[in-house]
Amino acid sequence: MALTPQDIARVANLARLELRPDETEHTLSQINGFFALVEQMDAVNTEGVEPLAHPAAVIGDVALRLREDVASEPNQREASQVSAPAVERGLFLVPKVIE
Amino acid sequence: MSGGLNNTALHELGVAQLAAKLAAREVSSVEATQHFLARIQNENLGAFLATNADVSLAQARAADARLAAGERTPLLGVPLAHKDVFVTRDFPTTAGSKILENYRSPFDATVVGRLGPQGAGMVTLGKLNCDEFAMGSGNDNSAYKPVKNPWDTSRIPGGSSGGSAAAVAARLVPAATGTDTGGSIRQPASLTGITGIKPTYGRCSRYGMVAFASSLDQAGPMARSALDCALLLSSMAGPDPDRDSTSLDLPAADYAADLLAARPASAGDKPLKGLRIGLPTQFFGAGCAPDVLAAVRGALAEYEKLGATLVDVSLPLTELSIPVYYVIAPAEASSNLSRFDGVRYGHRAARYTDLDDMYKKSRSEGFGDEATRRIMIGTYVLSHGYYDAYYLKAQKIRRLIAQDFQTAFAQCDIIAGPVSPTVAWKIGEKSDDPVASYLADIYTLSSSLAGLPGMSVPAGFGAGGMPVGLQLIGNYFKEAQLLGAAHQFQLATDWHLRQPPSL
Q1: B160 with B128: CB under 8 angstroms?
Q2: Is the pLDDT of residue B109 over 50?
Q3: Which of A28, A83, B91, B347 lies deepest, with the highest CB count within 10 Å?
Q4: Do A52 and B398 touch (CB under 8 A)?
Q5: What is the ipTM of this complex?
Q6: What average pLDDT does the structure give for chain B?
Q7: Do the chains contact at B399 and A51, CB–CB below 8 Å?
Q8: Does the distance separating the beta carbons of B396 and A86 come in below 8 Å?
Q9: Does residue B234 carry a catalytic annotation?
Q10: Which of A1, A11, A40 would best serve as a mutation to test chain B binding (most B beta carbons within 10 A)?
Q11: Range of the domain at B85
Q12: Has residue B278 been placed in a domain?
């Protein structure tokens, strides 16, 4: 199964990436080279096998903890916004979203 | 050890030795810190992305005050540096990416906090170069500069923790932190002749590690010896219940205590009697270069002398670990990297038409080629209609791979083999062939997928006088056993003490 330039354009849009035309071609050939490798997975029978998310779950239950829903962090708004591209009065600025 | 103060030799000391000198007050943390900062200032390997002498020296003074007050803890005052995927309040954090240029974290990663002034009292010398978002095996995916291997500066140091490995090998730091998603601690450790351990997935908190593939990412120490790694891991590991829901609810152990009690074997002594080392047939095939195999077999012969027995085991899905990993890791990466949107932090394009265009331009300008490729692959395999065939299928094979390890561990205590199929390659050699670079990860990916602890231990030299590492893989939570086996090997051999001829 090979991807087409249309697939690349669709995926780039989903990923919010903008590829230059020369990049699209290059990316297409590299990704198709990669998927030739991925096709090896088809040969493995995985019927009835549960997917594994936390590796240690192979040997026993791993409890994913919940914590109390209480604020535990001090207010760090200023420190958090030091690296923001555009901030005004403590708010992140973005281009107009609603007309 | 002479009682006199000889600063020029400080960088030749490992963590344990330097800690002993600090505890004996033969040298101060400020003196040690100044010594290493001077070396770092003159380094030309590209290992460092950021330093800040004022911050480091303030931390050193605080450590000296604790030492003066009589505190004696194993790492107090010893300098180290962090891979730049650990966020730090006092240094910029870039994860090797332009998209995070000038980023300042409002907090320290848990691992950084545990090792630093509020914890073990180590002094941070700076931040270490790495592949962008820890994606790579050669450190040539850093957006800033490649890292050079101190054993041969025309070669890569391995990746993605290449700056950490090069800095330890070149004696710019006594130790460093690294992260390992598919081999990023073990492979650069192997290619630069140092020791590194990736603990069991969940041993060290991932809080404050810039996320790549969340179900695989794991922090670990890189240093010259197993003993030094054990000292660091004892402080790094442990549950972080409120901040990392995947961190294991297991207390950290004192991994160094047993090692310090161990004595060098005298002739005929068998300190590892009873230890069964499993050799997966798939790790010793034609895919591994003869010079690497020769060094690995030499190390295994040494293990036999120490009393271990070698048994053949099988990990039949070893080759499948490559596609399985390169589906799962990019899938998780595409999700994790969606946070870089040019809004809350990181690069924002100078020109755009609307919000959607701002996202696209900011991300495309900010991400390098490999990150872009993995986001594309990951987005595709998670997209509607493909999820079952790729991501879910890969997660199922992942379970089979993990089960194969359990079958193998019924026959042995530790699994051993090469870390990397070749010694370090030339810078640029695999830059435009991502698949070739993925194939070179074959011996480290399966244990990463299974979440098992793994080490690289210096085992000799291959072609071009380049270092070769022996990989040791343990069962879940068996870091102490791995470190113990590595330590016995290092008491009997001196590969880990060799240093690059240029030093």
Answers
A1: no
A2: yes
A3: B91
A4: yes
A5: 0.95
A6: 95
A7: yes
A8: no
A9: no
A10: A11
A11: 8-261
A12: no
Closest by Cβ to A46, choosing from B359, B380, B396: B396
* Over residues B317-334, mean pLDDT: 97
Closest by alpha carbon to B153, among B378, B365, B427? B427
Q: Are B484 and B259 in contact (CB under 8 A)?
A: yes
pTM of the model: 0.96
Query: Does the active-site annotation cover B305?
Result: no
CATH, residue B110? 3.90.1300.10
Active site residue B142: no
pLDDT at B2: 39
Question: Least CB-CB distance to A16: which of B104, B320, B363?
Answer: B363
For chain B, the domain total comes to 1
CA angle B191, B194, B198 (to 5 degrees): 90
Tell me whether residues B367 and A27 touch, CB distance under 8 A: no
CA distance B357 to chain A (A): 8
How distant, in Å, are the alpha carbons of B258, B295, B459 from that of B265?
15, 22, 18
Residue B403 with chain A: CB contacts under 8 Å: 58
Least confident of B6-20, B214-228, B276-290, B319-333: B6-20
Nearest to A17 among B327, B372, B400 (CB): B372
B389-415: pLDDT as tens digits: 999 999 999 999 999 999 999 999 999
pLDDT bin (cut points 50, 70, 90) of residue B130 is: very high
Domains of chain A: 1-43 (1.10.20.60)
* Burial classification of residue B195, based on how many CB atoms lie within 10 Å of its CB (0-12 exposed, 13-18 middle, 19 or more buried): buried
Cβ contact, residue pair B364, A92, below 8 Å: no
